[in-house]
Amino acid sequence: MRFFGLLAAFLAGLLAATPALADPPLWHVRDADTEMVLFGSIHALPPGIEWRTVQLDSALENADLVAFEILTPANEAEEMEMFMPFLRYLIADRPLSEVVTAETFTRAVSAAAAQDMDVLSLQMMKPWAAALMLDMGAEEALGRSADLGVDTILEQSLAEGRRKEALDTSDLLLASMKALAEMGDDEGEAMLIEVLDGLDREELDLEIETAWAAGDIAPIEAEMRMMQEEAPRLYKALLVDRNHAWMPALTRMMDTEGRVVVVVGAAHMVGEDGLPTLLRAAGYDVEGP
What we know:
Elements: E1 26-30, E2 35-41, H1 54-62, E3 65-68, H2 76-90, H3 96-99, H4 102-114, H5 119-124, H6 127-141, H7 150-157, E4 164-166, H8 170-181, H9 185-197, H10 207-213, H11 218-230, H12 232-256, E5 259-265, H13 275-281, E6 285-287
């Protein structure tokens, strides 16, 4: 499942050469006095993916407001305040060794040791959380980094004092985490086994990223259709519910701002539940892929 990257990612083919000319998709939303540019981001990237364009930089330079899913905490205290409420959803009532089969646990311990994760931490996690942590660790070891992600780079590039806003509220983020936490142990173990089966890869799977950088959203659309079929509850919590919850803020921006740039995960842009579709349904003129 590539939708692991939607958490943290939020947010989950073949290793292809990065196209020489970056052209990731943009959507333009307009009414009589406002233009909103929607940019679907990738939250974590390896080095070498070219994605910045003149059009995006111009939109950012001229924006009265830039909106992101979340804003980077200003200091360690803010970071702790943001993430502490999530911890209770990661912690299991029973040790992982009592929840999954002995074979799965042995494989998980071996994988954790390879990533310098201690067994006590692993034991405390629910199966889905262990799967997420091991998958993220493997991706990071192969070079994928949130520090190179689109959201991080763009937020850091904004000049001090530029107006910016977070679309996600604490309640929305907690609802997404709760949806994961409600996953059954059998489903969580299946996810953990799937991750363990893929840990021997030597290269990152960059099919989605390289297609996105070239302006092709078809792989993202396919991934979201698969997520909708295989994990409908997570699809609803991570994408549908959040997109609809963001709409009041987006319509308020269309009513009160002149130029806005919205940077959220590319998965939020596609399909019948995507932001472009919702904004069209709300009566705005939307141009884009």
